[in-house]
Amino acid sequence: MTSSYRGPSFSRIRSRCGRWPRRSTPLGSVTLLVGAGVRDARAEVLELASRVHSPIGHSLGGKEWIQYDNPYDVGMSGLLGYGACYEATQKSDLLVLLGTDFPYETFLPQARTVQVDRDAAHLGRRTRLDLGVQGDVAATLRAVLPLIAQKSDRRFLNRMLRRHAEVLEKVVAAYTTKVDKMRPIHPEYVAALLDEAMDDDAIVTVDTGMCNVWAARYISPTGRRRIIGSFRHGTMANALPHAIGAAYAEPGRRVVSMSGDGGLTMLLGELLTVAEHDLPITTVALNNGSLGMIRLEMMVAGYPFFETDHGVAHLAGVARACGVPASTVADPAELPEELHRALHTPGPYLLDVRTDPNALSIPPHITAGQVRGFALAATRTVLDGGVGKMIELARSNLRSIPHL
Question: Which of 172, 263, 180 is nearest to 219 (CA)?
Fold first, then answer.
């Protein structure tokens, strides 16, 4: 695999990596946490994981480059995370950050960490390092791999893979099985069906907010799909504009915009652009009448959610008024057929899916402060006469209990 990086020479990288374990130095358990910087280093990362029997976790930016066909995958860490990634980063003897400026400091062990990044400003910015290496990930690993002996002990890797499978079965899959009669439709179910229905080379654009969570957990990379969002800036209403750009950049490929109702209504005029140019964009609008991520953040901070619920807009009607074919689905039993129609209609199409506003994203690690904040918000809501609100919230999220 080649790299376009024009940085230090191979010999300079090797000399810089003198503190990496050599053949005579046995390695303990190792976890790799990778980001978008491994885009051109997939083969090298997998070779390193094979050599040291390391689980591989990823950030959202690294998901599309490393998760597919990866026997070492343990999911994602951070507030959007799932699986065994958090546990693997905390319990390994060494954490290696590769091509990621991972922003969630509380999810990092703040110790026993090595980081490789081509941007020196990223080194040590999120966590204390034992060693920081400025360099291209692929070139650095090619220099390091000859210094590392093959491990025989894979007990840590096996334990993390088993834990990852358990979490996927108990939590992630819990929201996509036996839900074909549950109303409102679970957004997780929408994302899972969309993942199965769309082409392997589809371009998926994702709105900031809860759509990010559902895409992170349920949209599967294939090596040919692209998953694009405002992952670093957190800009709202990005999915449809990104989809328009992707449709022009990659003519002939189906583009899918996973839009929240909050994001879509901020830039409704873009539907006119899609219609005017007859772009092959399927907009799947997860329409819950709520700013879901803001709602959750308010409760975690200890406040009852306020002015986050604005009612369910008739997005299919708006789309048709703009010249975009559209339909609405509120019955989960009808969702597979409606998704098939949306994805196979030539040109643009908008599917208005009425989803559950009470669906919460439960991160892989919950702090005591978050629990206190949520409990305080629940108490305040009940005292303010909102008992019904909390009962509805509990009913929608009971299947998260095994994870908690």
Answer: 172
Angle of helix 137-144 relative to helix 42-52, nearest 10 degrees, comes to 40
- The Cα-based distances of 330 to 12, 210, 287, 335 in angstroms read 60, 19, 10, 8
> Helices marked H in 58-97 — which ranges?
63-66, 85-91
| Model pLDDT for residues 74-122, shown as the tens digit of each residue | 999 987 888 899 999 999 999 999 999 999 898 999 999 999 999 999 9
- Same fold flag, 10-153 and 169-400: yes
Give dist(CA 139, CA 99) in Å, integer: 12
Whether residue 26 has a cis bond before it, omega within 30° of 0: no
Q: CA 115 to CA 134: how far, in whole Å?
A: 8
Q: In what order do the strands lie in the sheet with 82-83?
A: 82-83, 73-76, 56-58, 30-34, 94-98, 113-117, 131-134
**Residue 92 is encoded by which pair of tokens?**
């390994």
At residue 8, φ and ψ (nearest 5 deg) are -60, 155
Q: Check if CATH label 3.40.50.1220 holds for domain 10-153.
A: yes
* pTM score of the predicted model: 0.81
Please answer whether residues 257 and 243 qualify as being in contact, where contact means their C-beta atoms are separated by less than 8 angstroms. yes
Domain range annotation of the chain: 10-153, 169-400
Place of tokens 């604005």: 310
The angle formed by the CA atoms of residues 8, 9 and 11, to the nearest 5 degrees, is 120
Contact in structure between 145 and 13 (CB atoms under 8 Å) = no
- Per-residue confidence (pLDDT) for residue 359, from 0 to 100: 74
Q: Is the CB of residue 227 less than 8 Å from the CB of residue 64?
A: yes
pLDDT tens-digit series, residues 309-355: 788 899 999 999 999 999 999 999 999 999 999 999 999 999 999 99
- Write out pLDDT tens, residues 132-178: 999 999 999 999 999 999 999 999 999 999 999 988 887 666 667 66
Nearest C-alpha neighbor of 291 from the set 270, 271, 312: 312
Q: Which CATH architecture has domain 169-400?
A: 3-Layer(aba) Sandwich (3.40)
Phi, psi angle pair for 320, to nearest 5°: -65, -35
Written as one string, the DSSP assignment of 167-211 is HIIIIIGGGTSS-TT-SSBPHHHHHHHHHHHS-TT-EEEE-SSHH
